[in-house]
């Protein structure tokens, strides 16, 4: 059996190196390192894939979120509601822009932001909601867009973990994750579902004016060369990274499929194990969903009940199985984001999830032997 890795980037590279290598070489030969033709080609191809009017590439996913908020003109003191259970980048940029982060609880089943908690957190100062499509599955966007409409709020989707996932409306209409809110942000960090070979990110929107504003912000607030109309940043996707991404984009659906297949194989064994709760796929429509792509499994995350999570992690590690705990501390308990206004009773679910979650190896190269070894190791540990 091949050594089990949390993420196997080498195996994936070996498969596509005949396409990726010449593409990188081409950028080097023509020396168009910044804003070269590869960046434009990738942008166009991603717009088409997502069926969104504008993709604005940038330097990383954290920048993408920050720039989206800058583009919407959010001002110091504006309150931005987001999930307590996510990677810190989401709340970091809110704080960095001197906006006021308002963290709220998530759902126990799909780990995504809780709709009632959003409703409860709205004040006259609330200006935006940032749902995070955690672990590869969309938050309840239909409900979130309804709340946003009723209260005149912006919705910024943190789509760093769900690129390529579909969101299905109640009536069966499907759209791509990240294209539902006013603006979406994603990351091309190497381990993400569409990862480059360094840092990268992008912003999506269907709004022409917002796209124009954002294109200036990523480039020092310039709309005309050496005319700086707004305070911007320097955040660009390298041409070399665009070359990698453009070579990988045609494989994204197949990569996500490989993750879904691995997830089903994990499910088949683990769903009947006492003390283990396998990840939920939220079904939002009434249509038959045999070939559902609503969850793209950036992470395959179990919850354990009545089993000590940390001892299980240690046991798996000893058997050569890496696993992750995403996330071990709720954001409202992090020193940087603690706030006396928060009330512990409002974070029942996150406080519980941080003790229960365990993410198993998940990538496009997992094979049957590895999955069998992982599931057998877990099962025999739990059954003693
Ligand atoms: C990875 C990630 C980010 C940040 O992306 P970077 O490219 O690493 O800056 C933001 N939000 C979430 C939920 C992420 O998983």
TrEMBL record:
<dbReference type="GO" id="GO:0000271">
    <property type="term" value="P:polysaccharide biosynthetic process"/>
</dbReference>
<dbReference type="GO" id="GO:0008483">
    <property type="term" value="F:transaminase activity"/>
</dbReference>
<dbReference type="InterPro" id="IPR015424">
    <property type="entry name" value="PyrdxlP-dep_Trfase"/>
</dbReference>
<dbReference type="InterPro" id="IPR000653">
    <property type="entry name" value="DegT/StrS_aminotransferase"/>
</dbReference>
<protein>
    <submittedName>
        <fullName>DegT/DnrJ/EryC1/StrS family aminotransferase</fullName>
    </submittedName>
</protein>
<feature type="active site" description="Proton acceptor">
    <location>
        <position position="192"/>
    </location>
</feature>
<dbReference type="InterPro" id="IPR015421">
    <property type="entry name" value="PyrdxlP-dep_Trfase_major"/>
</dbReference>
<dbReference type="InterPro" id="IPR015422">
    <property type="entry name" value="PyrdxlP-dep_Trfase_small"/>
</dbReference>
<dbReference type="Pfam" id="PF01041">
    <property type="entry name" value="DegT_DnrJ_EryC1"/>
</dbReference>
<keyword id="KW-0663">Pyridoxal phosphate</keyword>
<comment type="similarity">
    <text>Belongs to the DegT/DnrJ/EryC1 family.</text>
</comment>
<dbReference type="GO" id="GO:0030170">
    <property type="term" value="F:pyridoxal phosphate binding"/>
</dbReference>
<keyword id="KW-0032">Aminotransferase</keyword>
<feature type="modified residue" description="N6-(pyridoxal phosphate)lysine">
    <location>
        <position position="192"/>
    </location>
</feature>
<keyword id="KW-0808">Transferase</keyword>
């Amino acid at each position: 059996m091949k050594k089990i890795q949390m993420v196997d980037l080498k195996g994936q590279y070996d498969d596509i190196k005949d396409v990726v290598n010449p593409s990188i070489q081409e950028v080097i030969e023509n020396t168009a390192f910044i804003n070269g033709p590869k960046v434009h080609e990738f942008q166009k191809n991603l717009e088409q894939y997502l069926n969104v009017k504008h993709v604005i590439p940038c330097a990383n996913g954290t920048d993408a979120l920050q720039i989206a908020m800058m583009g919407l003109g959010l001002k110091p003191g504006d309150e931005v509601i987001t999930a307590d259970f996510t990677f810190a980048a989401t709340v970091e940029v809110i704080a960095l822009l001197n906006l006021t982060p308002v963290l709220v609880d998530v759902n126990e089943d799909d780990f995504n932001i809780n709709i009632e908690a959003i409703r409860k957190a709205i004040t006259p100062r609330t200006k935006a909601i940032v749902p995070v499509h955690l672990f590869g599955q969309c938050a309840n966007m239909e409900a979130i867009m309804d709340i946003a409409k009723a209260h005149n709020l912006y919705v910024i989707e943190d789509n760093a973990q769900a690129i390529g996932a579909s969101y299905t409306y109640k009536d069966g209409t499907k759209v791509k994750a990240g294209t539902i809110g006013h603006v979406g942000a994603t990351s091309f960090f190497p381990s993400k579902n569409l990862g480059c070979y360094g840092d990268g990110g992008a912003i999506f929107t269907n709004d022409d004016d917002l796209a124009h504003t954002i294109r200036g912000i990523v480039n020092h607030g310039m709309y005309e060369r050496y005319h700086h109309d707004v305070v911007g940043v320097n955040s660009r996707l390298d041409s070399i990274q665009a070359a990698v991404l453009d070579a990988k984009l045609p494989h994204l659906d197949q990569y996500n499929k490989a993750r879904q297949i691995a997830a089903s194989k994990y499910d088949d064994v683990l769903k009947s194990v006492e003390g283990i709760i396998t990840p939920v796929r939220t079904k939002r429509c009434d249509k038959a969903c045999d070939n559902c792509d609503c969850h793209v499994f950036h992470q395959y995350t179990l919850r354990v009940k009545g089993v000590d999570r940390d001892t299980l992690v240690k046991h798996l590690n000893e058997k050569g199985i890496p696993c992750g705990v995403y996330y071990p501390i709720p954001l409202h308990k992090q020193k940087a984001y603690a706030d006396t206004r928060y009330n512990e009773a409002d974070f029942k679910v996150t406080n519980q999830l941080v003790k229960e979650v365990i993410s198993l190896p998940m990538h496009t190269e997992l094979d049957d032997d590895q999955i069998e070894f992982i599931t057998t190791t877990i099962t025999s540990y739990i059954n003693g």
